[in-house]
Amino acid sequence: MKTALMAATVLVSQLSFSIGSAQEPGKNSAIINADQGKLTISRHIYGHFAEHLGSCIYGGIWVGENSPIANVRGIRQDVVAALRRLQIPNLRWPGGCFADAYHWMDGIGPREKRPSIVNTNWGGVTENNHFGTHEFMDLCEQIGTEPYITGNVGSGTVREMEQWIEYLTHDGKSPMADLRRANGREKPWRVSFWGLGNETWGCGGNMRPEYYADVLRQFQSYLHNFGGNRLYKIACGASDSNFGWTDVLMRETTRMIHGLSLHYYTVDWANKGSATQFTEREWFKVLKKTLGMADLIGRHSTVMDKYDPGKRVGLIVDEWGTWYDVEPGTNPGFLYQQNTLRDALVAGINLNIFNNSCERVRMTNIAQTINVLQAVILTRDDKMVLTPTYHVFDMYKVHQDATLLPLDLKSADYSFEKDRIPAVSMSASRDKAGKIHVTLCNLDPRNANTLAIDLRGAKTARISGRILTADAINAHNTFEKPDAVKPADFSSAKLTASGFEVRLPPMSVVVLELD
Ligand code: AHR
After folding, report:
1. How many Å lie between the centroid of ligand 1 and the Cα of residue 14?
2. Whole-prediction pTM
3. Which of 199, 252, 280, 282 is catalytic?
4. Is the per-residue pLDDT at 25 higher than 70?
């Protein structure tokens, strides 16, 4: 079976280079109105998520001060350097489902005295609490990123959450600020992003939306702004198409919150499938499912508009990404999966959707940063691999805090069997230095797609680019071959009288820079 699947994959990769473009001329075109940008693509759309799950924290980030792996105060330095390079704007922690089982006071003070607990959500392993509040805040400072902490609503108390914020951010004399000082941190930290529970409709308490709305109203009443710290309170939102949840939360809590979350994974729960052994059928299925993100954002936004027409409350997609079967032989509770060119396309499509929805979408967090689900980094002992998804984040980081440029894309279809989806995904922005960046994905693994782009309202003299592609749909990086999939210079774009033209090779992600 495995051999048959591999053969199919190889066949697809060979075909992709022999067939060439079958698009009718003129079907791929776009207009970019470069002088009509009004909205900012928040850098927080490029956020990350690290949970106490599998080897995301322990092994992936935290190795301890006595580890032979290069570390600063127990935090591994190869990972810090890689995440700094990505300019990740925020990091969500400690979960996920783990957040509603986590009691923060277990994770402060001398490490050898911290109690151990059982991680009941993820594999039933022992959690020794060596990575706690101080270690997480140290990690954020080392990376240069903002913390996004999810508080415990499911099994925690109002007092516990109130005290955590006081411990982190109180700048004067107070019981919790004094405890923080006793534990070695004089100055308060700044923590703005604060989640009030996670998946409270499921692992975070199995609540009904009406009940959670009341609990949220109570909890948020005790979360204070100390000193210069200003909280951005994020309510737990819906999963997928649960628009009723969004409606109740917006109806009952709009004036008390700053953000409402949405979780949407690219997954078929009945048949998750392998991360690396798949045919074009699964490639198509996964990309089609990913495109569903745009529809979900649109529909949840419509519900939010009813209660918040001024769009003050942000839609926070704080969990997204692919979810496949775990790698053979690994703990099913650890959610460890490989990452291929298909995942790069998933990331590129999602990030284009988020950019284009930035009027309502203010933050997103890929699940998860290291060794879990659609990871940007995989580690094994002292080795580290950057996944194709990492490279997409690297290519797209030019959009952070740039002005979204409105565009009108007319894409050809990518047809598979009796189904079809648009072949091209795209977004564009102008950065503070005036440079225009366009990110494009060609979803079709067999055909190149050429686009003629009418660039209105801007004069450009130069075009350059980078591309991420490979010769097989399941190409991926391993500890033995860490650079099998990596970006390269791209020269198939040229300026034209009205803008530019670009030829996207099959199954590729491209970033263009124009100035
Ligand atoms: O990311 C893995 C899990 O998926 C998270 O803990 C949970 O919030 C979601 O169900």
Report:
1. 37
2. 0.94
3. 199
4. no
